Amino acid sequence: MVSFIRSLSYSKKYNKIIYPSIEKKIREYRVYTKRIRKLSVKSTAREALDKSRSDAAVSSICLLYDNVNMELAAEVLFSFEAIVQYLNSVCLRSYTGTEPFLKLIFSSLRDALNLRTDSYENYFTFFPSKDDDGYLTILVEKCRQKVLLLPSYHVIRDHLAAFLSLFIDLQVTKFSSDDNAKEVNLINWSAAHGQKYSQLSCWEYCMAVDSTLSIRLLLAMATDPELSEQKAENLNSTFFPWICCIQKILEGYISYNDDLFAGNINYDFYYDNLKEYENRIVFFTDRALKLRTSEWSHTRTAVKLLLSIYITHPKASEGMNRITSKALLKAGGRGMSFYTLAVRLLRSKKYF
């Protein structure tokens, strides 16, 4: 009964608050893409926006905790992820993966989250076209405007800065390495930064950092005027690395064939078989839920919804993925059928 009530509540909130907010922002941002003169860059920007609906669905698991201002949180998270998705698309399509180029464009995330006081730079200085006609700068300013509204930003600022620094460093390492050196460079990077997490493989530590769920959670929690350091720390410890790893494994499982064809990095490639990453998802779920915080029931719901969002994806029923999806449905435990039904209904409305 609890699962039914929570899944119904989630569906209603997505319908009434999250989806309308996201659609409004997508329409607004799509207008900004019209200023981009170079067609290939404009195409990249619009492609990134099209992917933002799926990002919003994943972000929604961060909005369910007590005292989160759902409307403000949805706007902040969308604004941040729109930049991340755009940068990722630019990097995947660009042949200029030099460290100066990557460090400069990813510095936009620090500006977007108000983590430095410097004036905005010309982020595309090292890009072949030299400019995206100010599109990225607009995204940064729009995100920053929302971040400035967060009543408990001061509580999360240090955590945010630490996670973002790791995330940017990983992106620079990942995108600046040529195909022959990429694996070695990522292994070395993980060995240098992930010693604290002995229960993770080097690839799983990269997964946890590469997922922005921990950053999204902190931003959502900062909409709570009464957020305490302890609550932020407790929730953060359930998401990083455990739920972040779950999200990245699921993302890799959905995009496995596409990434294999395109030659993109996919951390699921480094598992021996489907059963191994099924087992790891169960392990990470157990670890996340072992931390009995006051928000434990919400975290349990968040994990179930995260699983549901990915196993209801159309690609989750293709080929061998169908077997894995059934196993993950079972791994989610009691009440999963209610959550998957709620998510399927939202998918049927083309919400994501």
UniProtKB/TrEMBL annotation:
Recorded superkingdom: Bacteria
Keywords, ordered alphabetically: Lyase
Originating organism: Ruminiclostridium hungatei
Name the UniProt record assigns to this protein: Tetraprenyl-beta-curcumene synthase
Enzyme class at the top of the EC tree: lyase
GO MF entries: lyase activity
EC numbers for this chain: 4.2.3.130
InterPro entries on file: YtpB-like (IPR019712)
